[in-house]
Design goal:
Length: 260
């Protein structure tokens, strides 16, 4: 992951923006901004701030490091600022910004935890080691930060694999569609009976299909496919309340709302 630098003497203040989505701090320290402003009025020269080309605003740059210095320049009334333009390539800009927060006012524990969680939500493919390396925390600490998010992500993946498997899609195609290996797909499929255990337990307590589907965030067709598995057509029709009909012409019922 290479970071390429381009040193630019000055760019217009108005072309630099603060993107909250990649800012690792909870808020701006206005006392610190005021101190920097006084330093500038006294002729102190600050290091260039770090920016990258804004991905959504043509001709603009977003700050990676130096928000307080940038605000101080604006407070003093300066119209341009020295910058280093970074090309981060594959590095997450939020994590890079967090890594650069190493001055006298480092990130708090709350800010570090929030940064790790925000980065993982944006890119669940990031490992704990990758996140920890950039924000200065151990893999175990990052594991604790994102344990619940990872569990939710795992459940979502389980449901996708389960549904595609029930539709008869081969494992190699499931793997390609989800960007996973066949070994991972095979491993998840082996855990499918455990996934169905809780919904079956709720059904045995008398909860309805819609109630159980809502509780476990399943779709009704997914749940019906389990409940009706192994039954003959007559038993399935009875469970669904369809009954049997005979026709002397080709006639088709409307789709059942439970199945789309």
């Amino acid at each position: 992951m290479t970071i390429r630098d381009k040193l630019s003497d000055k760019i217009a203040i108005m072309d630099v923006t603060l993107d909250e989505s990649i800012y690792p701090r909870e808020k701006i320290d206005h006392t610190r901004v005021h101190i920097f402003s006084e330093n500038l009025r006294e002729g102190f020269k600050f290091d260039p701030i770090e920016v990258q080309i804004h991905p959504d605003k043509k001709g603009k740059y977003r700050i990676l490091d130096g928000v307080h210095r940038w605000n101080a320049h604006k407070e003093v009334g300066l119209t341009d600022i020295s910058v280093i333009i970074r090309d981060l390539k594959a590095i997450d800009p939020l994590l890079y910004a967090a890594k650069m927060a190493i001055g006298p006012k480092q990130l708090t524990e709350k800010e570090t935890r929030s940064t790790a969680r925000r980065a993982f939500k944006k890119n669940p493919g990031l490992t704990s080691s990758e996140i920890g390396k950039l924000i200065g925390r151990s893999r175990q600490t990052i594991d604790n930060y994102i344990a619940d998010l990872r569990a939710v992500q795992q459940i979502k993946l389980d449901r996708k694999i389960w549904l595609m498997n029930r539709l008869g899609i081969p494992q190699d195609r499931i793997a390609r569609r989800l960007g996973e290996t066949r070994d991972i797909i095979r491993s998840h499929l082996g855990e499918m009976p455990i996934l169905a255990k809780s919904p079956f337990a709720d059904l045995s307590l008398g909860l309805t299909i819609p109630q159980v589907a809502t509780k476990h965030n399943w779709s009704e067709p997914m749940l019906w496919s389990l409940v009706l598995e192994g039954q003959n057509d007559q038993a399935r029709f009875k469970a669904l309340g369809w009954g049997l009909r005979t026709w002397d012409l080709w006639n088709f019922n409307e789709c059942d709302s439970r199945f789309g």
